[in-house]
Amino acid sequence: MDPVTNPYAPGAGQRPPELAGRDEQLRTFDVVLERIARGRSERSIVLTGLRGVGKTVLLNALRGSAVRAGWGTGKFEARPDQRLRRPLAAAAHQAVRELGHPRGAEVDQVLGIIKSFSQRDAPTGAKLRDKWQPGIDAPAVTGRADSGDIEIDLVELFTDIGGLAADVGKGIAFFVDEMQDVHPDDVSALCAACHEISQSGLPVIVVGAGLPHLPAVLSASKSYSERLFRYSRIDRLPRDAADRALVGPASEEDAEFTPEALDEMYAVTAGYPYFIQAYGKVVWDVAPRSPITADDIRVAAPEAESELAVGFFGSRFERATPAEREYLRAMADAALHAGAEAADADVAGADADGDVPAGPGSPASDPAGEREAVPTSAVAEVLGRKPQSLSPARDALIKKGLIYSGERGRIAFTVPHFGRYLRTQA
Protein backbone atom coordinates (compact mmCIF):
# COMPACT_ATOMS: atom_id res chain seq x y z
CA MET A 1 0.00 0.00 0.00
CA ASP A 2 1.22 3.54 -0.73
CA PRO A 3 2.43 5.08 2.56
CA VAL A 4 1.89 8.57 1.14
CA THR A 5 -1.88 7.99 1.01
CA ASN A 6 -2.04 6.35 4.45
CA PRO A 7 -5.25 7.81 5.92
CA TYR A 8 -4.78 6.91 9.58
CA ALA A 9 -3.67 9.51 12.13
CA PRO A 10 -2.37 8.34 15.50
CA GLY A 11 -1.51 11.40 17.55
CA ALA A 12 -2.35 13.13 20.81
CA GLY A 13 -5.59 15.00 20.23
CA GLN A 14 -5.32 14.60 16.46
CA ARG A 15 -8.70 14.17 14.82
CA PRO A 16 -9.03 10.85 12.98
CA PRO A 17 -10.31 10.91 9.40
CA GLU A 18 -13.54 9.24 10.59
CA LEU A 19 -14.87 10.42 13.96
CA ALA A 20 -16.91 7.28 14.53
CA GLY A 21 -19.06 6.47 17.53
CA ARG A 22 -19.46 10.02 18.85
CA ASP A 23 -22.64 11.04 17.01
CA GLU A 24 -24.74 11.07 20.17
CA GLN A 25 -22.43 13.53 21.96
CA LEU A 26 -22.29 15.80 18.91
CA ARG A 27 -26.06 15.82 18.51
CA THR A 28 -26.59 16.49 22.20
CA PHE A 29 -24.21 19.42 22.12
CA ASP A 30 -25.95 20.95 19.09
CA VAL A 31 -29.20 20.84 21.06
CA VAL A 32 -27.47 22.51 24.05
CA LEU A 33 -26.17 25.31 21.82
CA GLU A 34 -29.57 25.93 20.29
CA ARG A 35 -31.40 25.85 23.62
CA ILE A 36 -29.02 28.34 25.23
CA ALA A 37 -29.22 30.62 22.20
CA ARG A 38 -33.01 30.68 22.71
CA GLY A 39 -32.65 31.58 26.37
CA ARG A 40 -33.39 28.09 27.68
CA SER A 41 -31.60 26.68 30.70
CA GLU A 42 -28.90 24.06 30.11
CA ARG A 43 -26.12 22.44 32.12
CA SER A 44 -22.42 22.56 31.41
CA ILE A 45 -20.87 19.33 30.14
CA VAL A 46 -18.18 16.99 31.46
CA LEU A 47 -16.59 14.24 29.35
CA THR A 48 -14.74 11.48 31.20
CA GLY A 49 -12.72 8.46 30.13
CA LEU A 50 -9.36 6.75 30.03
CA ARG A 51 -6.45 8.04 28.00
CA GLY A 52 -6.66 7.15 24.34
CA VAL A 53 -10.46 7.10 24.03
CA GLY A 54 -10.59 10.41 22.15
CA LYS A 55 -11.71 12.93 24.80
CA THR A 56 -9.53 15.73 23.42
CA VAL A 57 -10.60 14.96 19.86
CA LEU A 58 -14.25 15.13 20.89
CA LEU A 59 -13.64 18.31 22.90
CA ASN A 60 -12.18 19.95 19.78
CA ALA A 61 -15.10 18.70 17.68
CA LEU A 62 -17.59 20.23 20.13
CA ARG A 63 -15.69 23.48 20.01
CA GLY A 64 -15.93 23.40 16.22
CA SER A 65 -19.71 23.06 16.54
CA ALA A 66 -19.82 26.12 18.81
CA VAL A 67 -17.69 28.16 16.39
CA ARG A 68 -19.98 27.22 13.49
CA ALA A 69 -22.95 28.37 15.58
CA GLY A 70 -21.33 31.79 15.93
CA TRP A 71 -20.36 31.40 19.58
CA GLY A 72 -17.26 32.80 21.20
CA THR A 73 -14.99 30.00 22.38
CA GLY A 74 -11.78 29.57 24.32
CA LYS A 75 -9.86 26.45 25.26
CA PHE A 76 -7.04 25.59 27.63
CA GLU A 77 -5.43 22.55 29.22
CA ALA A 78 -5.29 22.50 33.00
CA ARG A 79 -1.99 21.75 34.72
CA PRO A 80 -1.41 20.78 38.36
CA ASP A 81 1.23 23.49 38.75
CA GLN A 82 -0.85 26.36 37.34
CA ARG A 83 -3.76 28.26 38.85
CA LEU A 84 -6.85 29.14 36.84
CA ARG A 85 -6.61 32.90 36.28
CA ARG A 86 -4.06 33.06 33.47
CA PRO A 87 -5.29 30.26 31.19
CA LEU A 88 -8.92 31.22 31.73
CA ALA A 89 -8.18 34.89 31.00
CA ALA A 90 -6.47 33.92 27.74
CA ALA A 91 -9.46 31.71 26.81
CA ALA A 92 -11.90 34.53 27.68
CA HIS A 93 -9.91 36.99 25.58
CA GLN A 94 -10.13 34.68 22.58
CA ALA A 95 -13.83 34.01 23.16
CA VAL A 96 -14.69 37.72 23.22
CA ARG A 97 -12.73 38.31 20.02
CA GLU A 98 -14.54 35.44 18.29
CA LEU A 99 -17.92 36.76 19.40
CA GLY A 100 -17.67 39.77 17.09
CA HIS A 101 -19.71 42.18 19.22
CA PRO A 102 -20.37 45.33 17.11
CA ARG A 103 -19.97 47.93 19.89
CA GLY A 104 -16.29 48.49 20.50
CA ALA A 105 -16.67 50.45 23.74
CA GLU A 106 -18.57 47.62 25.42
CA VAL A 107 -16.05 45.10 24.16
CA ASP A 108 -13.15 47.16 25.53
CA GLN A 109 -14.91 47.37 28.89
CA VAL A 110 -15.14 43.58 29.14
CA LEU A 111 -11.58 43.13 27.85
CA GLY A 112 -10.42 45.51 30.57
CA ILE A 113 -12.20 43.38 33.16
CA ILE A 114 -10.50 40.24 31.78
CA LYS A 115 -7.16 42.02 32.06
CA SER A 116 -7.79 42.95 35.69
CA PHE A 117 -8.94 39.40 36.43
CA SER A 118 -5.71 37.95 35.06
CA GLN A 119 -3.37 40.45 36.73
CA ARG A 120 -4.91 39.90 40.17
CA ASP A 121 -2.78 36.76 40.25
CA ALA A 122 0.37 38.85 40.76
CA PRO A 123 1.84 39.20 44.29
CA THR A 124 0.83 42.27 46.29
CA GLY A 125 3.09 45.22 45.45
CA ALA A 126 4.41 43.65 42.23
CA LYS A 127 5.68 46.13 39.67
CA LEU A 128 4.00 46.42 36.27
CA ARG A 129 6.88 44.65 34.52
CA ASP A 130 6.44 41.66 36.87
CA LYS A 131 2.72 41.28 36.12
CA TRP A 132 1.59 38.85 33.46
CA GLN A 133 0.44 40.70 30.35
CA PRO A 134 -2.42 38.88 28.58
CA GLY A 135 -1.98 40.74 25.27
CA ILE A 136 -5.11 42.86 25.75
CA ASP A 137 -4.84 46.40 24.39
CA ALA A 138 -7.69 47.79 26.47
CA PRO A 139 -6.80 49.39 29.82
CA ALA A 140 -7.49 47.35 32.95
CA VAL A 141 -10.84 48.06 34.61
CA THR A 142 -10.66 48.13 38.38
CA GLY A 143 -13.42 47.16 40.78
CA ARG A 144 -14.71 44.21 38.79
CA ALA A 145 -13.43 40.58 38.88
CA ASP A 146 -10.30 41.73 40.72
CA SER A 147 -11.17 41.22 44.40
CA GLY A 148 -8.62 38.45 44.84
CA ASP A 149 -11.31 35.93 45.82
CA ILE A 150 -11.38 33.60 42.82
CA GLU A 151 -14.99 32.58 43.41
CA ILE A 152 -16.28 36.18 43.48
CA ASP A 153 -14.09 37.19 40.56
CA LEU A 154 -15.10 34.27 38.38
CA VAL A 155 -18.81 34.93 38.90
CA GLU A 156 -18.33 38.58 37.93
CA LEU A 157 -16.20 37.68 34.91
CA PHE A 158 -18.72 35.13 33.61
CA THR A 159 -21.57 37.57 34.22
CA ASP A 160 -19.98 40.36 32.17
CA ILE A 161 -18.89 38.04 29.36
CA GLY A 162 -22.32 36.42 29.31
CA GLY A 163 -24.00 39.80 29.05
CA LEU A 164 -21.85 40.66 26.04
CA ALA A 165 -22.83 37.40 24.33
CA ALA A 166 -26.53 37.87 25.14
CA ASP A 167 -26.43 41.23 23.36
CA VAL A 168 -25.77 39.48 20.04
CA GLY A 169 -27.96 36.42 20.68
CA LYS A 170 -25.00 34.04 20.95
CA GLY A 171 -23.09 32.35 23.74
CA ILE A 172 -19.65 31.78 25.25
CA ALA A 173 -18.18 28.29 25.74
CA PHE A 174 -15.01 27.48 27.66
CA PHE A 175 -13.37 24.14 26.86
CA VAL A 176 -11.13 22.71 29.59
CA ASP A 177 -8.95 19.68 28.90
CA GLU A 178 -7.41 17.60 31.73
CA MET A 179 -9.99 19.18 34.04
CA GLN A 180 -9.08 16.88 36.94
CA ASP A 181 -5.81 18.87 37.25
CA VAL A 182 -7.53 22.17 38.08
CA HIS A 183 -6.51 23.34 41.57
CA PRO A 184 -9.12 22.38 44.23
CA ASP A 185 -9.88 26.02 45.11
CA ASP A 186 -10.34 26.84 41.44
CA VAL A 187 -12.60 23.82 40.92
CA SER A 188 -14.82 25.10 43.70
CA ALA A 189 -14.90 28.57 42.15
CA LEU A 190 -15.65 27.18 38.70
CA CYS A 191 -18.58 25.15 40.02
CA ALA A 192 -19.92 28.17 41.91
CA ALA A 193 -19.65 30.38 38.82
CA CYS A 194 -21.43 27.82 36.62
CA HIS A 195 -24.16 27.53 39.26
CA GLU A 196 -24.64 31.30 39.43
CA ILE A 197 -24.65 31.71 35.65
CA SER A 198 -27.19 28.94 35.15
CA GLN A 199 -29.50 30.64 37.66
CA SER A 200 -29.05 33.97 35.88
CA GLY A 201 -29.84 32.44 32.50
CA LEU A 202 -26.74 33.90 30.86
CA PRO A 203 -25.35 32.09 27.78
CA VAL A 204 -22.07 30.80 29.24
CA ILE A 205 -21.14 27.12 29.57
CA VAL A 206 -18.06 25.10 30.50
CA VAL A 207 -17.21 21.90 28.63
CA GLY A 208 -14.63 19.88 30.53
CA ALA A 209 -12.80 16.66 29.74
CA GLY A 210 -10.84 14.52 32.17
CA LEU A 211 -10.06 11.14 33.65
CA PRO A 212 -12.78 8.86 35.06
CA HIS A 213 -12.47 10.23 38.59
CA LEU A 214 -13.29 13.81 37.50
CA PRO A 215 -16.92 13.57 38.72
CA ALA A 216 -15.59 12.65 42.18
CA VAL A 217 -13.25 15.67 42.08
CA LEU A 218 -16.16 17.97 41.25
CA SER A 219 -18.45 16.39 43.85
CA ALA A 220 -15.83 16.80 46.57
CA SER A 221 -15.67 20.49 45.70
CA LYS A 222 -19.40 21.29 45.60
CA SER A 223 -22.12 18.87 46.58
CA TYR A 224 -24.47 20.23 43.92
CA SER A 225 -21.99 19.53 41.08
CA GLU A 226 -23.81 16.24 40.40
CA ARG A 227 -26.78 18.33 39.21
CA LEU A 228 -24.69 21.12 37.75
CA PHE A 229 -23.08 19.17 34.90
CA ARG A 230 -24.25 16.78 32.23
CA TYR A 231 -21.80 13.85 32.49
CA SER A 232 -20.85 11.73 29.50
CA ARG A 233 -18.48 8.79 29.75
CA ILE A 234 -16.37 8.34 26.63
CA ASP A 235 -15.41 4.70 26.24
CA ARG A 236 -13.96 2.36 23.64
CA LEU A 237 -15.94 2.06 20.42
CA PRO A 238 -18.50 -0.68 19.83
CA ARG A 239 -17.74 -3.04 16.97
CA ASP A 240 -19.74 -1.25 14.27
CA ALA A 241 -18.15 2.13 15.06
CA ALA A 242 -14.66 0.63 15.21
CA ASP A 243 -15.22 -0.89 11.78
CA ARG A 244 -16.35 2.48 10.41
CA ALA A 245 -13.21 4.13 11.80
CA LEU A 246 -11.16 1.74 9.65
CA VAL A 247 -13.34 1.18 6.60
CA GLY A 248 -14.37 4.80 5.96
CA PRO A 249 -10.85 6.25 5.54
CA ALA A 250 -9.69 3.20 3.56
CA SER A 251 -12.57 3.48 1.09
CA GLU A 252 -11.60 7.10 0.40
CA GLU A 253 -8.32 5.67 -0.93
CA ASP A 254 -10.03 2.84 -2.86
CA ALA A 255 -8.93 0.21 -0.35
CA GLU A 256 -10.83 -2.20 1.85
CA PHE A 257 -10.52 -4.73 4.68
CA THR A 258 -11.70 -8.33 4.56
CA PRO A 259 -14.24 -9.32 7.23
CA GLU A 260 -11.58 -11.50 8.87
CA ALA A 261 -9.22 -8.51 8.97
CA LEU A 262 -11.82 -6.42 10.77
CA ASP A 263 -12.30 -9.25 13.28
CA GLU A 264 -8.55 -9.32 13.90
CA MET A 265 -8.31 -5.53 14.23
CA TYR A 266 -11.04 -5.43 16.85
CA ALA A 267 -9.37 -8.25 18.74
CA VAL A 268 -6.03 -6.42 18.98
CA THR A 269 -7.37 -2.90 19.54
CA ALA A 270 -10.42 -3.70 21.73
CA GLY A 271 -12.11 -0.71 20.09
CA TYR A 272 -9.88 1.95 21.69
CA PRO A 273 -9.72 4.85 19.19
CA TYR A 274 -6.00 5.57 19.62
CA PHE A 275 -5.10 1.90 19.13
CA ILE A 276 -7.30 1.74 16.02
CA GLN A 277 -5.36 4.62 14.47
CA ALA A 278 -1.96 3.28 15.58
CA TYR A 279 -2.58 -0.23 14.25
CA GLY A 280 -4.32 1.11 11.14
CA LYS A 281 -1.32 3.21 10.18
CA VAL A 282 1.19 0.35 10.52
CA VAL A 283 -1.09 -2.18 8.84
CA TRP A 284 -1.57 0.13 5.86
CA ASP A 285 2.19 0.51 5.39
CA VAL A 286 2.84 -3.23 5.76
CA ALA A 287 -0.01 -4.59 3.62
CA PRO A 288 1.16 -5.29 0.04
CA ARG A 289 -2.22 -4.65 -1.58
CA SER A 290 -5.98 -4.25 -1.08
CA PRO A 291 -7.95 -5.90 0.39
CA ILE A 292 -6.12 -5.87 3.71
CA THR A 293 -6.23 -9.34 5.27
CA ALA A 294 -6.00 -10.81 8.75
CA ASP A 295 -2.52 -12.10 7.86
CA ASP A 296 -1.44 -8.51 7.10
CA ILE A 297 -2.57 -7.46 10.57
CA ARG A 298 -0.73 -10.32 12.24
CA VAL A 299 2.44 -9.38 10.36
CA ALA A 300 2.05 -5.69 11.34
CA ALA A 301 1.13 -6.32 14.99
CA PRO A 302 4.70 -6.55 16.39
CA GLU A 303 5.68 -3.22 14.82
CA ALA A 304 2.48 -1.52 16.02
CA GLU A 305 2.97 -2.89 19.54
CA SER A 306 6.59 -1.74 19.51
CA GLU A 307 5.57 1.80 18.59
CA LEU A 308 2.88 1.84 21.30
CA ALA A 309 5.40 0.49 23.82
CA VAL A 310 7.66 3.47 23.18
CA GLY A 311 5.30 6.36 22.50
CA PHE A 312 2.10 5.50 24.36
CA PHE A 313 3.10 3.27 27.26
CA GLY A 314 6.84 3.72 27.69
CA SER A 315 6.82 7.51 27.82
CA ARG A 316 4.44 7.33 30.79
CA PHE A 317 6.29 4.51 32.54
CA GLU A 318 9.55 6.47 32.34
CA ARG A 319 8.02 9.23 34.46
CA ALA A 320 7.73 6.90 37.43
CA THR A 321 10.43 6.41 40.07
CA PRO A 322 11.71 2.88 40.87
CA ALA A 323 9.34 2.63 43.87
CA GLU A 324 6.43 3.81 41.74
CA ARG A 325 7.28 1.31 38.99
CA GLU A 326 7.23 -1.46 41.56
CA TYR A 327 3.76 -0.33 42.59
CA LEU A 328 2.58 -0.23 38.96
CA ARG A 329 3.81 -3.77 38.30
CA ALA A 330 2.08 -5.00 41.44
CA MET A 331 -1.11 -3.32 40.24
CA ALA A 332 -0.80 -5.15 36.92
CA ASP A 333 -0.45 -8.51 38.67
CA ALA A 334 -3.34 -7.78 41.03
CA ALA A 335 -5.57 -6.69 38.13
CA LEU A 336 -4.85 -9.86 36.16
CA HIS A 337 -5.47 -12.05 39.20
CA ALA A 338 -8.76 -10.27 39.94
CA GLY A 339 -9.80 -10.60 36.30
CA ALA A 340 -9.11 -14.34 36.32
CA GLU A 341 -11.13 -14.79 39.52
CA ALA A 342 -14.02 -12.78 38.07
CA ALA A 343 -13.98 -14.85 34.88
CA ASP A 344 -14.06 -18.08 36.89
CA ALA A 345 -16.96 -16.77 38.95
CA ASP A 346 -18.86 -15.75 35.80
CA VAL A 347 -18.38 -19.19 34.26
CA ALA A 348 -19.55 -20.84 37.47
CA GLY A 349 -22.59 -18.57 37.56
CA ALA A 350 -23.42 -19.36 33.95
CA ASP A 351 -23.20 -23.07 34.61
CA ALA A 352 -25.54 -22.67 37.58
CA ASP A 353 -28.33 -20.59 36.03
CA GLY A 354 -27.66 -20.52 32.29
CA ASP A 355 -26.92 -16.80 32.06
CA VAL A 356 -24.30 -15.42 29.71
CA PRO A 357 -21.14 -14.68 31.74
CA ALA A 358 -20.02 -11.09 32.10
CA GLY A 359 -16.29 -11.88 32.06
CA PRO A 360 -13.74 -9.78 30.18
CA GLY A 361 -15.38 -6.94 28.31
CA SER A 362 -17.99 -6.33 30.97
CA PRO A 363 -18.09 -2.85 32.55
CA ALA A 364 -15.88 -4.00 35.43
CA SER A 365 -13.34 -5.78 33.26
CA ASP A 366 -10.90 -4.92 30.48
CA PRO A 367 -10.70 -6.88 27.19
CA ALA A 368 -7.14 -7.85 28.12
CA GLY A 369 -8.65 -10.08 30.82
CA GLU A 370 -7.73 -7.88 33.77
CA ARG A 371 -9.93 -6.09 36.25
CA GLU A 372 -10.25 -2.35 35.61
CA ALA A 373 -10.02 -1.38 39.29
CA VAL A 374 -8.38 -3.31 42.11
CA PRO A 375 -8.29 -2.82 45.90
CA THR A 376 -5.21 -1.09 47.25
CA SER A 377 -5.03 -3.96 49.73
CA ALA A 378 -4.57 -6.40 46.83
CA VAL A 379 -1.58 -4.40 45.57
CA ALA A 380 -0.08 -4.43 49.05
CA GLU A 381 -0.62 -8.19 49.23
CA VAL A 382 1.29 -8.72 45.97
CA LEU A 383 4.21 -6.72 47.37
CA GLY A 384 4.01 -8.25 50.83
CA ARG A 385 3.72 -4.80 52.40
CA LYS A 386 1.25 -2.89 54.55
CA PRO A 387 -1.12 -0.67 52.52
CA GLN A 388 -0.16 2.43 54.56
CA SER A 389 3.52 2.08 53.59
CA LEU A 390 2.57 2.29 49.91
CA SER A 391 0.55 5.49 50.19
CA PRO A 392 3.38 7.82 49.05
CA ALA A 393 3.94 5.85 45.82
CA ARG A 394 0.19 5.62 45.15
CA ASP A 395 -0.39 9.34 45.74
CA ALA A 396 2.56 10.29 43.52
CA LEU A 397 1.25 8.10 40.69
CA ILE A 398 -2.18 9.71 40.99
CA LYS A 399 -0.61 13.18 40.74
CA LYS A 400 1.33 12.07 37.65
CA GLY A 401 -1.90 10.91 36.03
CA LEU A 402 -0.80 7.27 35.71
CA ILE A 403 -3.48 5.84 38.00
CA TYR A 404 -6.73 7.12 39.48
CA SER A 405 -9.05 6.30 42.33
CA GLY A 406 -12.71 6.28 41.33
CA GLU A 407 -13.83 5.05 44.74
CA ARG A 408 -12.28 4.77 48.15
CA GLY A 409 -9.82 1.91 48.51
CA ARG A 410 -9.69 1.05 44.78
CA ILE A 411 -7.34 2.15 42.03
CA ALA A 412 -7.04 1.68 38.27
CA PHE A 413 -4.73 2.58 35.40
CA THR A 414 -5.57 5.72 33.42
CA VAL A 415 -4.17 4.05 30.27
CA PRO A 416 -5.95 1.03 28.73
CA HIS A 417 -3.88 -2.16 28.44
CA PHE A 418 -1.18 -0.64 30.64
CA GLY A 419 -1.16 -3.71 32.86
CA ARG A 420 -0.56 -5.97 29.87
CA TYR A 421 2.32 -3.74 28.77
CA LEU A 422 3.93 -3.90 32.22
CA ARG A 423 3.69 -7.68 32.34
CA THR A 424 5.20 -7.94 28.85
CA GLN A 425 8.11 -5.71 29.88
CA ALA A 426 8.69 -7.71 33.02
Task: Tell me what the structure shows.
The structure is a single chain. By secondary structure, this protein is α/β, with parallel strands linked by helices. The protein has three domains: 23-233, P-loop containing nucleotide triphosphate hydrolases (Rossmann fold, 3-Layer(aba) Sandwich); 238-312, Helicase, Ruva Protein, domain 3 (Orthogonal Bundle), CATH 1.10.8; 322-425, Arc Repressor Mutant, subunit A (Orthogonal Bundle), CATH 1.10.10. It has helices at 23-37, 55-68, 85-99, 104-119, 150-167, 184-200, 214-221, 225-228, 239-252, 259-269, 273-286, 294-317, 322-353, 376-383, 391-399, 418-425; strands spanning 44-48, 72-77, 172-177, 204-210, 229-233, 373-375, 403-407, 410-413. The strands form two sheets. The chain has a five-stranded parallel sheet with strand order 2-3-4-1-5, sandwiched between helices. Helix 6 links the parallel strand 3 and strand 4 (204-210).
